[in-house]
Amino acid sequence: MRGSAALIVSVLLAGLVTDTRAGSESCQARMFSQSSVVCECNATHCDSVGRVTLPAVGHYLSFLSSEAGSRLHREQGQVQRNSTGTALRITLVPEQKYQHIKGFGGAMTDSAAINILSLSAGAQDQLLRQYFSPEGIEYNVVRVPMASCDFSTRLYTYADSPGDYGLLNFSLAEEDTHMKIPLLHRAQALSARPLSLFASAWTAPSWLKTNGALIGKGSLKGQPGDKEYKTWAQYYIRFLEEYEKHNLSFWGLTTGNEPTAGELTNYSFQALGFRPEQQRDWIAMDLGPALHSSRYAKTRLMILDDQRLLLPYWAKVVLSDTHAARYVHGIGLHWYLDHVAPAKITLGTTHDLYPEYFLFGTEACSGWTSFDRGVQLGSWKRAEDYASDIIEDLNNHVTGWTDWNLALDQGGGPNWVKNFVDSTIIVDHSRDVFYKQPTFYSMAHFSKFLWEGSQRVGVSTSGHSALESSAFIRPDGSAALIVLNRSDAEVPFEVWDQTVGFLPSSAPPHSILTLLWNRS
Description:
Blueprint: H1 5-14, E1 16-22, E2 25-31, E3 37-41, E4 59-66, E5 73-78, E6 89-100, E7 103-107, H2 110-117, H3 121-132, E8 141-146, H4 174-190, E9 196-201, H5 227-245, E10 252-254, H6 261-264, H7 276-292, E11 300-307, H8 313-319, H9 322-325, E12 330-334, H10 343-353, E13 358-363, E14 368-369, E15 372-373, H11 380-394, E16 398-405, E17 408-409, E18 425-428, E19 433-436, H12 438-447, E20 455-461, E21 467-473, E22 479-485, E23 491-497, E24 501-507, E25 511-517
Parallel strand pairs: 6-23, 7-8, 7-16, 8-9, 9-10, 10-11, 11-12, 12-13, 13-16, 17-18
Antiparallel strand pairs: 1-2, 2-3, 3-19, 4-5, 4-25, 6-20, 14-15, 18-19, 20-21, 21-22, 22-25, 23-24
Domain Glycosyl hydrolase family 30 beta sandwich: 453-515
Subcellular location: Lysosome membrane
Membrane topology: Peripheral membrane protein
């Protein structure tokens, strides 16, 4: 087990400890069986980074989270006129300009809503505040499943009446009207800016599918242009209309969650198979025209919503067709096979081929593999996995990154097919508390500080090091640098910004660090 032995021993003895102050409130740290702590929150107390105001030019802020127990620990440093002589220098190269950031967030699944609503009203508000308020980590993106997925307690769509090609019986479920929609309204009320919602469907109604079931290997009956494909396109429009009746609008849509799931594998939960050629023709002939002729023509449409391993092939098939490409805005990515899909080959090549289409992370979670399954309370390795993947994505043109369930229970559910995984927040409703996992703070180092509209810029490093980093100029002209140290050793470094000077810093072992400074 890595990390601070002294911290681990003290926590195991005490059961519950208080960490150093993290922003405006302190972390009530609890140790379970993993390498680091979780921060326990209830209706009256939760650690919070608070609102962040940058100091004047000549000073900078640093925010540190680490395996040793720091959680967004804030310090202020002074910019030096001359080099500190540190062996490692990270140089900001602002003239190298790349993609603009859309944002970061998580998914309001049925299961997430169930877990949030299992808490008392005060604890619910506390949890939502941690994600969406200016005092919290300021998520601005929320993924919303269209009808059921595996993180539901039952199988359903919005149009389960066989033969209803006119969708006359289309209606939202109680999971939408009684749980997800009210929570989305509460999240929006806490946020200082409009939330960008995007929707993904897992399956079409069974009567539209070749296998006659919501689960397993199956695709739409017929061919693109046929009534089944047109009905499925109108299903999307009806979803947007029904949510609009509840005063919720959507920034984006994906063409369907993991289209390879229902095409190449026999998934035990909801899936709808598409080959890239089918997706191309469905967009060109059905979904694209349906959106274009509706009042939702400006809704961003993302293809793929699956593993980046499928790139650039999938993008080539869909986007080389001008009839389909004119309706598409971006490409949605899942992280699950990133370790076997080099970013430069997949993301970099796709961006070079189709620079006008944005790349966007639409789903990620830990605990999904058979050998590393479910919730691990306090796993720092999972926090590092998140931060490393986000940095790699950002450094390869990705504009945002969406976590999976906003909250799960201690078993990693509910999930009707027992596909239990981990989450950034774990709820223990029996005690009316929730735990903020180390992965919550991984997300925070990006979502809190990389405002929408921030632009990635170049960095150069004076030599080889264990550090992973990404740099941005924010809309107000200030700079942000995120640094990950996955090594066992502390790494001193300095940041050189030629407009202000040298920022002396150091990355403790197994830590995530965000530096912020004004440039003028």
